[in-house]
Design a protein that fits this description.
The structure is a homodimer. Chain A has about 90 residues and is of the alpha+beta class. Chain A is about 25% helix and about 35% strand. The radius of gyration of chain A is 17 Å and the shape is elongated.
């Protein structure tokens, strides 16, 4: 296994999964937000991307490889989205 | 002003705005995700909340108080959502 942390167990943690459209994928919602931000007075902005943030509370230990499986297969669409998984102390 | 950083200018930055439903607000989407995660094999989970993640690229300096105004008034609904704004180096 390439990542030795994958099978670590985690207790009393919070898992933050962020899901953003891949850079190559059109994001019309982000483009609309960029336009609205420009009209709000911030003229010089670059690209805006809009995705999801999922916060999962874990009362006890969980296998990190299972968490990655859930983020990849359940919470994101790997064809058009990238996910990032972060574990923080609750 | 309570926060002395509010009027700092920022150049070549990325702004990450996370928007989550307030803890007191019902989040049916989060409850549905929690159920799906349970069925996927992670039996012991606590609350799941689903919100938005907005990534804004800034090519040049921007007033941080204007960014907070945009996050509060444009990107979130302050009645039912809390936002968090983080500035990171692009």
């Amino acid at each position: 296994m390439s990542n030795p942390l994958r099978n670590e167990t985690l207790a009393g943690m919070k898992v933050l999964v962020t899901v953003l459209p891949k850079p190559s994928v059109l994001d019309p919602q982000g483009a609309a937000a960029a336009e609205a931000i420009r009209h709000h007075g911030l003229e010089k902005i670059g690209r805006v991307r809009i995705g999801k943030m999922i916060e999962i509370e874990l009362p006890e230990a969980a296998d990190e490889s299972l968490l990655h499986e859930i983020a990849r297969d359940l919470l994101s669409n790997p064809v058009i989205e990238d996910y990032e998984l972060k574990v923080v102390n609750a």
